[in-house]
Write a structure and sequence with these properties.
elongated; two-stranded antiparallel sheet; 61% helix; alpha/beta; 8% strand; 526 residues
Length: 526
Amino acid sequence: MSPKHAPANSFRARLGKPFAQPGFWLLPMLAIIAVGVIGTALYLGGLSSPDKHFKEFPIAVINEDEGATVPQADGAKSEENLGKELVQKFVDKANEEDKIDLRELTMDEAKEQLDRGELYAAVVVPETFSKDTVSLIEGSLTRDNAARPEVTVYTDPQAGSLGTRLASGAVEPGIQEASKALGEQLTESVAPAEEQAYNQVLQQLQESQQAQQQQLQRSAAQGGPQVQQFAQQVQQSQEGSAEQIAKELSPTVSSVARDTLKDPVSVVSKAYNDLPEGTALGMSAFYYSILLLVVGFSGSVALNLLMDGRMGMSPFEMGPFFKDYPRAVLPRPVGFLMKWLTFVVAAAPASALMMWVASAVGMPVPHGFLVFLLGWLAMSAVSAIVLALIAVGGSVGMLLCLIYLVFMGLPSAGAVVPLQAVPEFFRAIAPFEPLHHIFSSVRSALFFDAIPEAGLTTGVIGLSVMLVVALLVGLLGGWGYDRWKGLRGADRPGKHSAEEDAHAASGERHHRKSADNPPAHRGAHA
């Protein structure tokens, strides 16, 4: 072999012949396409159309109306509770479909559920609702100031800005329909009210004319015939004038007032509890949960790569530094447990520092020690899941982690979009997703005073169960692989077996020296 061709032959021998094989190019490209398609289908499919997947959105309605005397269409009056009628129409509208889980509660019951994060909104009909409704008709006739009857919608900003908008959007159609139904009743009572006002003016005019006529008759009785004749002429000229004057003077409802009466209820939205600064419009709990998931995921992948490199299972490479370490043959369960315990030890200071940095940049962190423990538990659980999937699936386990933890986890977390507004599939898998339990427990600590019923208990239990299951999968899966295939790294040829096979096939049985990538036995002395 001439020196001119030796380098090329050596280069081909070192690389082997993977580039001519279709699988070398197709497999990574298919992996990229699969991740893109699956990620888009899961992420956008779960979050893109919340209004189309509304189901059992928890909203409370509270009627505190004390009632009032309401004029009827026949001119009579009766004691009624218009707030109760409004609520009933709202309930009937909600019962037509299963979009809203409408709960008729007292104010105290609604406050308890709002404090636990169990409601997205509470509709409150005030004590003066009926009185304000009646005064609206009277004010339309007398031109006096009259307040429109109000309904207050208390929203929960801790549900995030989207949850608040969804709650308002769910409540407003029902209130508007109930308001229009009430408006029909008020419109029917306009004519009797106008007639009553006319009769009052006419009665006053007639009484005034009668008093004038009596006075004129007394004066005429003291005068002569001419005076009496003049008094009769005045009396005749006043006949029928009271009705005409009453029509001109009696108040009527204007067209603007009629439009108001057709839809009388005014909806006022208020936040039940104003969020302090630094909570990112109620999304800080979700952002912090995402950080815990990302650190647990990426940290476990990095730890796995670094420890496998130092154990000689793969080349150890950092920047231009490239080195092969001698292989350490360990039972797979031992290696899995060693990696996870290493992560758990590092996760404790990581959780403490993450909480300190979050507080330093302005995020309120009440119950700091609890938040630290939750962060530690969350990252440890995520790490156990990641390392278990890698231990069982190898490199494919990383893709499974991405799909399971991120693409499936974000729509089912119940944070960006409430679970009541995502497709049924994501509501069903939410109890099996770590991000859902991380968010529930962290939100309870940050927003709901660490109330156990506000998601803290279920979150901790869910993460603990997932941690135990992941450890069992990693340990039992590794044990099964060891029995089936032997210890990892013990029954396979060296890393450069392909290179040695190429040398054997070409008759070149010499050992090449390389300063950049020494063989494993030389790497032991490096």
